[in-house]
DNA sequence: TATGAATGAGTATTCATTCAT
DNA sequence: TATGAATGAATACTCATTCAT
């Protein structure tokens, strides 16, 4: 990872381009889009994609990992409620994460990356509880469950601004007192 | 149902067997499972599947319709909270409905069947509101949104009994007062 | 063939309806059209078609036979040149005959029916020769060859009135003196 | 041809093998023969055929183009009458062109390639007219019409040497004076 | 005899993956 | 290491033909 040889640098650049392309393609056409399409968008040959990610699932897993890391980063900048709101609003844009978290036939397990997100949300939850913004009885598992559920619902349901707000209102009320 | 000819009876039996097989196969392997597999499970030739459902999408739509009708029927027997609980508990068994309601790339439009379910939930909501079990401000759209969200979450998240209960507790609290 | 039982009459009527339907369908969509389509147009079940014509080729052969018989009848009412002109003009309408005479992958042999047409054209040729309208050296084989060639050309080339006339002018001039 | 990479050479070789195989297969069995059969004869996998020709129609169009180009080349070496004679004699060998020019349900448009052939025949016609071998009133459209008609007739009629000669005699006489 | 449901081999096409250059 | 051509299993769908009713 700290290799400085020019070839490695090229390879790293290709890896990044492929990930970018894959994220865009899968977000636009779903994970059924072909790897060839990803290669085309990335401007590399198909063989290069498979050299970096021996399997399509490996490629999908890599995207997930990156997207989850971004979420963790975003979580660090917000409180629980704005993070929730932000995620739900962005669900469509993050189609790939949501879909992959949802399973969609692809077998991907990223305990670490998911674990990191869970930890980040856990911190937000503790802060919120400490501030009295969330009932004491609320635990992390159901918070995560609600988060992923709402993201999937928002993504596939095509919720408009108003529906997002109304739905979050109910959930937030539930988190405050139950 | 008005048909009395024996041949029609055979055809109806096959149609039902194909639907049963398709429901099972798609629930187990996702909607990407092959039509051939469905035929095999149904114990009919592939041509028979396509005679009954000229397109794979037609087959998926037929499953959806049947599953949604079952939901509507179940809704008639329960109050809002037990219906919610029941659905979430059954999410995995109804994988196909949930997936199809969620989109998953398949283009299926069943406004009628979905509309019927929405109406049924609407009735449950009104009863709950009338009984003071749900806040006046809660409307049907967010109720449906929560329902589908939780089903997707439960399905893909593999929630255990306890997680289901805890998550529903939050949502029910939110519905009662927000 | 002289059976008078009502069932036979029904069967004969069905046979005729199937032939009519087949002629129409194959003329419109080519011989690749499905037998099912023919049955639909004829208003009978697919099984009935196969009872009358055990094979699709049998059905095609039967159409051919009937169409050729019509040609023979028309030949009896015309002289060589007007028969030629008439046939070429009708080529598109008689798509099926032309196509089948042309082979199109279907293996059909109708020596008798073709023979009858050949005899009819032979008679026209003799008359024309006797009237000095055609050179003595012109024989039947090349006359038939020209007839079928022009029909195929007209059919597939989509000749307009003018092109038909110009092409026939050349051929007729060749028949008169060579 | 400007490409120097060895892989490109391999691909070109395969492309040519596929075209050769397709020409042979379609000539022998008609355009209904399967693409799989073509791949088998070419000694490549089915995917390779579709990589080069994304659609069966694309493959057929490519064959046509090549065959038509050969005809144009042959036209350059002959006068109108020997070209006619040559084409008719070769009709069976060029089954695919003839069939495709004739339509046969396949939707292929090659205005350029066909146009080139028409131009070549046009030049032969002018030469023949200039030499007084063809009547002044004969125009290109009917010349082409006769050419294609006779090819189709010869192909499907299975004319022997003698019949070819006799038929051409009539047509040539018609071209000389009409 | 008519019906039309069932059969199943066959077809074009796609796509993850391999491998020669 | 990158390329992109080749592979071939898989998939949705068609259609001539059979056969139970």
TrEMBL record, chains A, B, C, D:
Q: Which keywords fit this entry according to its UniProt record?
A: DNA-binding, Transcription, Transcription regulation
Q: Which residues bind DNA?
A: 34-53
Keyword Protein biosynthesis attributed? no
Domain of life of the native organism: Bacteria
What transmembrane ranges does the database entry give? none
Keyword Transcription regulation: yes or no? yes
Cited InterPro entries: Homeodomain-like_sf, HTH-type_TetR-like_transc_reg, HTH_TetR, Tet_transcr_reg_TetR-rel_C_sf, TetR_SbtR-like_C
Pfam families xrefs = TetR_C_43, TetR_N
Give the Gene Ontology MF terms in alphabetical order: DNA-binding transcription factor activity; transcription cis-regulatory region binding
Task: Give the HTH tetR-type domain ranges.
Answer: 12-71
- Protein name in the entry: TetR family transcriptional regulator
Tell me which species this is from. Answer: Micromonospora arida
Q: Species lineage, top-down? A: Bacteria, Bacillati, Actinomycetota, Actinomycetes, Micromonosporales
